[in-house]
Hints:
Layout: E1 9-20, E2 23-34, E3 38-42, H1 49-56, E4 64-69, E5 72-73, H2 79-85, E6 87-89, H3 102-110, H4 117-123, H5 126-145, H6 161-174, E7 179-183, H7 191-203, E8 210-214, H8 218-224, E9 227-232, E10 235-240, H9 242-246, H10 249-256
Parallel strand pairs: 3-8, 3-9, 6-7, 7-8
Antiparallel strand pairs: 1-2, 1-4, 4-5, 9-10
Helix pairs in contact: 3-5, 3-6, 5-6
Amino acid sequence: xxxxxxxxxxxxxxRIGVQFGGIVALDxxxxxxxxxxxxxxxxxxxxxxxxxxxxxTGVAKPSSGNISLLGHAITGLRQHVITAxxxxxxxxxxxxxxxxxxxxxxxxxxxxxxxxxxxGALLGLSHTRRNEAEARARTSEMLAFTGLTRHAGTLAxxxxxxxxxxxxxxRALATRPKLLLIDExxxxxxxxxxxxxxxxxxxxRAFGCGVLLIEHDINIVxxxxxxxxxxxxxxxxADGTPCEITADPAVxxxxxxxxxxx
Length: 262
């Protein structure tokens, strides 16, 4: 794995707090993700993992703290602005345009951030044609990368569950993200599918992309992540290499089970 400590900081999360009424979902969470680094976020159900994703991507607003991407503040920006800045995500519950084809779903990601719009398309401007060609090329590249080329003309709702997961990943990557947030991608997968998924996620950084991953399967997390952060009751209780995390008594108590079980 690439050494994470020599790369520039891609995403910096500083003292992020989130409250929903009287419920504290996140409490002063700090986390750095470096360029091309794969960082896992683990913790019990209700620990604040998805809330952290929602704050980073603009779905939820923090009560306190700051988030920056390559040194530029993104705290509280709208979702489409954050996507345009270079952050994409997949969801725990698959969100696809089911009545659109696989290719059309990925094209939506590839078109993200284009500014030429309808007037440019109607006038046939050269830069619009160039952008359209680039989007189509990016779409084909992501379909090939995720193994979906043969399903390009299939409606998304007709894909298998595993291929729907791959399609969501392809669409997110088509936006050309600097950082990709992946929320529980292996849920419902068999062991073979999990291994294939792990290899796919590991390959993402070939596109110059960092990854922030939520996943309950500890074997996947320890197998592909450079570092792991552990949340419990909205607080970060540990942050380190897979070996450090799986040997940490606080983590074992909060998440992995008893020391004997670990």
